[in-house]
Amino acid sequence: MPPYSLRWGIIATGSISSEFARDLLVDPATRGVSDISHNISAVGSRSVASAQKFINSLSSASPSEGWKWGVENGKLEGIRACGSYKEVYDDPNVDVIYVSTPPSAHHQNVRDALLAGKHVLCEKPFTFDLEELDELIAIAKDKNLFLMEAVWTRFHPLAAEVAKVINSGKLGKPQRFSADFSMDWKPDNEPASHRMLDPALGGGSLLDMGPYPSVWAMLLVQQNPHNRDQDPQVLFSHQTLYERTQIDLNSRWLVQWKDLCQGLLLSDLSAFGQREATAVLQCEEGDLLSHYPPYKAETFSIIPRPDRFAGSITQKTTHHHPIAQGNNGLSYEADEVARCLRDGKIESEKMPWAESRIVQGWFDVVRKQGPTPLANVKGTAGQ
Ligand SMILES: NC(=O)C1=CN([C@@H]2O[C@H](COP(=O)(O)OP(=O)(O)OC[C@H]3O[C@@H](n4cnc5c(N)ncnc54)[C@H](OP(=O)(O)O)[C@@H]3O)[C@@H](O)[C@H]2O)C=CC1
Ligand SMILES: O=C1OC[C@@H](O)[C@H](O)[C@H]1O
């Protein structure tokens, strides 16, 4: 059977769009995939010159670059440079739109794409607030269109291996959880207009980096067979204000899974976090530690409890599950979108709306309790 072939439209020509487009052009065989094929049919930008530049840079891959394969194998054939996002939504040669604008624009972009009849993969954070997300889910259901948050980490080889350990039950009941995404990014060296620093674009550590500790909260605790709580709540939170641009420099929030455990989640724009224990699940029989970076972890360890309290795990083991060579790691989520569309699904079981809703709800609580002006901002749902 020939592979299922998906035609992408890409919205925005920023840094992650470029990484994503390149991954679409890598030979799927490099990651052991033979049932899926990706094509890029259109790129949309606020300026047609930027869309064209983006396409030119894809087309001129050097022979050593993994994505050269797609260029040589017709995966850019007929690609259009569009000077507006709308032209991409309206393009009959596009099946699915990848939205990678700043967070404050996601709701409007996704809504416009869905209303134009296109399936959507939207970058994290899904939306600015839960009301926006609920509106998008309602439209997707009403129009029978696929919609997924682009949380790439969930589709990486390591995520599948971690899930096997969690589902095996060998760690026993969770007792404690923590997860962190922190980087010493030096915000003082960046312009105030940078999307990470500008509150009007949804800047700050919570919305940009918070999705990653949240991934691990979902993979290790929410999906844990011992968990029965479908609505884990934030008990309390703290954010530190970055005076210059009024975004959160860091966020911390404590989540309670009823009758199970608590988890501390952290994000930081101006300090490094843990390296070998970016996400830690401590259980009755032993602990699971996932290594840095939390967005693209390739190694995890299972470690025994301290001697006096030892459980059935008695030896440390370390497990390495790398992203396939030549891929940046975004290709796996693209494969999931293609498989869901091929199979007639409008929601991914691996990245379900319910889990995006939980995380978005946490962000709303933390943001509203915080000292930044975003605390009082409402998204664009209903407008
Ligand atoms: N999965 C991952 O690993 C990553 C995900 N992300 C997520 O992807 C999204 C985009 O991030 P990133 O690519 O780093 O951002 P960039 O700032 O590099 O690019 C954003 C693009 O959005 C478009 N845009 C639309 N409206 C605006 C506006 N008002 N101001 C500025 N740009 C605008 C621009 O494209 P144009 O001019 O062509 O219209 C711009 O190039 C975010 O949601 C972020 O959280 C980011 C990095 C990594
Ligand atoms: O999604 C992301 O992952 C990698 C980080 O460097 C980046 O800030 C963030 O947007």
Short synopsis of the structure:
This protein is of the alpha/beta class and 383 residues long. The protein contains eleven helices and 14 strands.
Structural commentary:
It catalyses: D-xylose + NADP(+) = D-xylono-1,5-lactone + NADPH + H(+). By secondary structure, this protein is an alpha/beta fold. 31% of the residues lie in helices and 23% in strands. The strands form two sheets. Strands 8-9-10-7-11-12-13-14 form an eight-stranded mixed sheet. A six-stranded parallel sheet has the order 3-2-1-4-5-6, with helices on both faces. Helix 5 runs parallel beside helix 6 and helix 6 runs antiparallel to helix 11. The mean pLDDT is 97. The structure holds NADPH dihydro-nicotinamide-adenine-dinucleotide phosphate and ligand LJPVP2WV.
